[in-house]
Amino acid sequence: MANIVSTLFHRFRNLILYGIIGSLSAGTDFTLYSILVRETAIPYLLINVFSTFVGIVISYLLNRKYNFKVEDNAISRFLIFLSIGIGGLVVSSLLLYLFVEFWAIDKTLSKIISLVVVVLIQYLLNKYITFKTRKYA
Q1: Theoretical Cys-Cys bridge with 58: which of 25, 64, 78, 121, CB 3.0 to 4.6 Å?
Q2: Structurally, how many domains does the chain consist of?
Q3: Whose CA is closest to 95, among 77, 83, 79, 113?
C-alpha cells in the first residue's frame, strides 16, 4: 500500500504541490478579498485585482522554489506567470461580474466559484509553459 501511495505521489507530485501552494495563495487572495469587501467601500472588482495580484506573487515564488524547482530565467518566467495570472484575473473578474450582477450570487460564493475555474486553467498553463524545463541545443 505504501508503495502505491509513493508511486502516485511521485507521478502527481507537481499537481499535488501546485494544489497545496495554490490553496495557500488562493486562500490569501480569498481572505484579502473577503476582508476588504466586508470592511471597505472599495469596489469589489478593484479589490479582486489587488487580492489576485498578491496571490499571483505568492504562488509564483512558492512554485518556483518548492514545486517546479526552476531557478533559471527568473524574470522571464515571472513575466509569463504574471501574464497567465492576469489572464486568470480577467476570467475571474468576468465570472465575478456575471455571477454578482446577472445571477445575483453572493460576492463571496462568486469568488470561490471563479477561483476553482481559474486555478485549474492556470495549473495547466503554468506547468506546460512557465515552468517547462528548457532544453538547449
Answers
A1: 25
A2: 1
A3: 113
Question: How far apart, in Å, are the Cα atoms of 114 and each of 37, 72, 125?
Answer: 16, 31, 17
CA distances from 80 to 56, 128, 131 (A): 11, 11, 9
Query: Residues 6-34: what's their mean pLDDT?
Result: 84
Whether the Cβ atoms of residue 92 and residue 114 lie closer than 8 Å to each other: yes
Q: Position 37: which residue type?
A: V
pLDDT digits (tens, 9 = 90+) for 60-106: 999 898 888 888 888 998 999 999 988 988 998 899 999 999 999 99
Maximum CA extent, the chain: 55
Parent domain of 26: 14-130
